[in-house]
Each structure stands twice: as C-alpha cells, then as structure tokens.
Amino acid sequence: MRFRFAVPLVVLALVGLTGCVGAQQVRPDNPRGAGGLVPSVDDKDAGLVGVAPNFDVKAYRVVAVAPFTVSESEIKDEGDRRFADKMTGYLHTQLVRRLTESGLFTRVVNLGAAEMPKDAGHILRLDGEITRLGRGSQVARYFAGAYGAGATRAQIETRFVDVPTGRIVMVTADRRKASVGWFGGDDDAHLEESFDDAARDLTKFLTRLSRGESPAK
Length: 217
What we know:
Number of helices: 4
Low-confidence stretches: 1-20, 136-149, 181-185
Strand content: 25-35%
C-alpha cells in the first residue's frame, strides 16, 4: 500500500527538482474558422486545420505576420488587457522568428513594425486571435500540477489570407495547457512556452505542406 502512494510523491518531487516538463497540446475548444473554412482536420503539429482546395504554400515568397488579438471574453479588467498585450507581443515575436528561421519564404514581414509591401507579387498574410487565455493557479500547480490542476491554457486560432484576392486559404486552431514546473511554474513562463511551441509547430506544418504532405495525426 505504501508503495502505491509513494510513486506519485516521487514523481512530484522529481518534477519539483527538474522544473517545467513542457506544455501539452490538447484538442481545441469550439474553433471558429473563417472565410467558409473550419479547422476540423487533425494534424500532429498544428492541432486542427482547414485548408482550401488548391492552396499551395510554395506559391508565396513573402509572408506578412499581423499582430494577434485576444478575444474580449478573456479580458475582464485593465490588468487582463495589459497581460493580453504582453502575451500577444510574445507570440508575434515567436511567429516572426520561427517563420524567418524556416527558410520557407524569401521575406517575412513583421506588420507590427512595417507596412504591407507593395508590388511583391503573391503575399500570404497571417492573422490570428488568442481565443482562450487563462493564467490558472500557481498554488494549485505547486500542490497537484502533475494531475493537471491549476493549468494555464491558451488557444491560438489563425487565418492565412491570400493578399491579392483577400481569400482565406487556411485556418488552424491549436490549444495548449501547462501545469507542471518549478514551484508550480509562473503564469508567464508556462504561457510563453505554450506560444513558442505553437509557433514552432505551425511552422513545421507549413514546412510539411511545402513538401506536398497532407495533414496527419
């Protein structure tokens, strides 16, 4: 009997000593979609996706990343708004960085700092919204984080737009939760990890699409 109870305690102790073990990807909650597309196809990297027929990411040499917004339902007061601004800024930075490092595009434009380029041929614009943003409870994570208590939560929904026509060519929805870290892990660190992972995995999905692969579990 003592052995059964000791195992979870050992796991929690090891987690406390080693720090964060990573944000988990979970199924998105009621993604909205846009432009007639709904993210409903499972993908091992991007979460849920919806891709327009004949969309070819290789046709675009320029991608422009617009600043994301946070759903008003996630903002209760001015403190929430400041926190939302911080998190969207972090996500924006990671998306620009990951897309630049991927080499998929000859140019990655940060629309938070520059205007949309003119006469650049086919441009793909990345818009998006954080539709879930929860800080959870660090105290609950500290005492029972290994069981999911007090988890932070973030859901990122994206729209890829063909700039010349305004047509939405792809939508995605990715949800992340994190509950285990050093002394429970602070909210900012858990959410930043979630956003960094989401930016990395969205870029991986685009890379796979460029090789002619389809969404896959």
